[in-house]
Structures are given as C-alpha cells and as structure tokens.
Write the structure tokens for this entry.
Amino acid sequence: MNTIPITREGYENLKKELERLLKVERPANVKAIETARAHGDLSENAEFHAAKERQSFIEGRVNELQVNLGRCEIIDIGGAHDRAVFGARVTVQDIETEEEKVFTLVGPLESAPEKGRISVVSPLGKALIGKEEGDEIQVQTPGGIKQMEIISIE
C-alpha cells in the first residue's frame, strides 16, 4: 500500500474532520432519520430519503478518511531549502504575462488550488519539485504549455 505525503497540519485537519463526522454529524443524522421515520409513510417521505442519502455520504466520507489517515506519512517541512521541496512556498512568474503566483507544495489530500496549495503529484507540482530559484519550467495546462520562472522559494 502506497503512503500519502502530508503535512502535520493537513493530517490534524483530516483527523478533526473524521472526529466531527463521528461525534456530531453521524448522531445528528441518526436523529434526523428517526424524526423522519416518525412522520409515517416512508415511500413518499422526502425528509427520510434526504436523511438516508446524507447518512450514505457521511459513512462514505468516514471510510475514505479512515483509509487515507492510515496511509498518510507526515513529512516534516521545517528548515530552509534552496530547492522546491514538499512544504515549500514557491513564487513563480509566468514568462509570457509576467503574472506572479505563490504556491505551497503539499500532498494530494490537502491540495486546494484556489488557496494556492498544490499537490506535489499535480503537473505543476511535479515540474516545481527539485528546482531552484531562477530555474524555468514548462507545464502543460488545459490552456496549453505555460513557461514559468521560479522567483523565490521559502
């Protein structure tokens, strides 16, 4: 079974989500099912069907989190680096548009591109890993190939 790289913060966030699902969401959903069941005819009871659907989602997410947490390998991101490594904040500049963007390299379970957190297994993440300030990279994007220069690594 392959391990999944993750930061300590990301691991803790997944544990908190699992705990919330088990201690808050699941019991609340059980009560919702009981309440809906008390309304009578289940075949036309929208509340009951919605609660059962929510139960299915909760159980699926609980199982997914349990499996993923078991596969996680926490990577220490401390210390300064002269290369782009897991946990580093990398500032890149699009060579064509001169637009700068900042990305933090994280594992696939904590990836949130809208927040600037990109997975090390994404095309951009793979292109950045191991590179130094001043290096240029090429990345295949849905809009075509982008050329970027690494401005800084923190």
Remarks:
- The radius of gyration is 21 Å.
- The chain has a mean pLDDT of 92.
- The longest helix spans residues 8-37.
